[in-house]
Amino acid sequence: SMLGIVHGLGELMVLQVLLKISAGVQVSCPYKIRNPPHPFITMVTNRPSESWMLIVEFVGRLFSYNNGRIGKSVFVMLDPFLKFVLLDPKRASEYSNLRWSLQQALLKGVTQQVGEESRAGMQYLIDSLCQMQAASLDLVQEPMKKMLE
Q1: What is the pLDDT of residues 98-118, one digit of tens each?
Q2: Could you give the 3-state DSSP secondary structure of residue 24?
Q3: Total number of domains constituting the chain
């Protein structure tokens, strides 16, 4: 089932991060947007209707994972996937539900963090916002209005 696949791949990515943290090595994402593609990109591309809600749920749980131990590494681990979903204007209508739900999960997760973890998360989101491209102003304004409500 898709739930098992999302959970299994997500846990493997978390394990990669935790191993690097415990070894004192800087966390980096071994995946890219295209080659090798981030596992969540592959899932969303091949089975969008089955996977996107499960991925958003997993991303939301990452912020409280292991008592916040992975903190800002969440963004490092998810960076190619987040750029694919949030910053690609060609996929604006195709992934609108995923984009909106993912934005909500990220904002909620960042606001639940404290101190340096919260600042790093907010900085990532602000940097991403500056890179957003949209086919029209409405595609940017509407999500912003909803986020501020």
Answers
A1: 888 888 888 888 777 667 666
A2: coil
A3: 1
Domain containing 13 equals 2-148
Within 10 Å of residue 21's Cβ, how many Cβ atoms? 16
Between CA 48 and CA 42 the distance in angstroms is 9
Report residue 66 CA to chain centroid gap. 18
Query: Do residues 86 and 98 lie in contact, with contact meaning Cβ atoms separated by under 8 Å?
Result: no
Contact in structure between 10 and 3 (CB atoms under 8 Å):
no
**Closest CA relative to residue 84, chosen from 118, 37, 122:** 37
Contacts 24+ apart (CB under 8 A), 41-45: 41/80, 41/81, 41/84, 43/2, 43/5, 43/6, 43/9, 44/81, 44/84, 44/85, 44/95, 44/98
Residues near 50 by beta carbon (within 8 Å), at least 6 away in sequence: 2
Q: What is the pTM of this model?
A: 0.79
